[in-house]
Design a protein that fits this description.
Order of helices and strands: HEHHEEHEHEHEE
Mean pLDDT: 92
Distance between the termini: 10 Å
Oligomer: single chain
């Protein structure tokens, strides 16, 4: 299944463009991103402050943040690591050295949207922009893991459920999903 950009939300996108600035993360925002991660994920799943700083230092171009234009704070973000691997493994969460700048695939490590910004299409917009950006870079596939309760949401964003993942991150059972960008 090819991952397609969603054209149904063009009008909504204009509103989100006016409210949010979409860009790569800045080095000084690593702590803010880690704080958002702590709000959005339970402690057994959240990225640590140290690991978030390592990811931001190693691969800032694989973060896409949505900054609220009114207050200048990050409202949400998506981050990952590029690689030539085709199967998501837990080590991507803990080892930024697995990053390969020229990798054909991206392992998505977290989609975070603060509670006060949810229900407005922001997560979908961040994912859509990330898909388009990585497609333009020539990436082949985006991979992620998610809990069963999030499978439908990601399917609506163009991802395909590959079944139960090998990942046991945080002691949970995850689904592995992928989104083909370029064939």
């Amino acid at each position: 299944m090819e991952c397609k950009e969603n054209e149904d939300f063009a009008e909504e996108e204009k509103g989100l463009d006016g409210r949010f600035l979409f860009r790569n993360i800045l080095p000084e925002e690593a702590g803010q991103a880690a704080g958002i991660e702590e709000i959005c994920f339970p402690p057994n799943e959240a990225c640590s402050q140290q690991m978030m700083r390592e990811r931001v230092a190693k691969a800032p171009e694989l973060f896409l943040v949505a900054v609220d234009r009114q207050n200048g704070k990050i409202a949400g973000f998506l981050n990952g690591l590029s690689t030539d691997e085709d199967i998501f493994r837990d080590e991507f969460f803990t080892d930024a050295e697995l990053y390969n700048p020229a990798g054909r695939n991206v392992m998505l490590l977290g989609l975070d949207v603060l509670p006060e910004y949810r229900g407005q299409g922001l997560a979908r917009e961040i994912v859509s922009r990330y898909q388009a950006r990585e497609r333009e870079k020539g990436r082949k596939t985006l991979f992620l893991t998610c809990l069963e309760s999030k499978v439908g949401m990601y399917e609506r964003m163009g991802f395909r459920d590959r079944g139960i993942a090998q990942s046991s991150w945080g002691g949970e059972q995850w689904h592995e999903m992928d989104c083909r960008l370029n064939f």
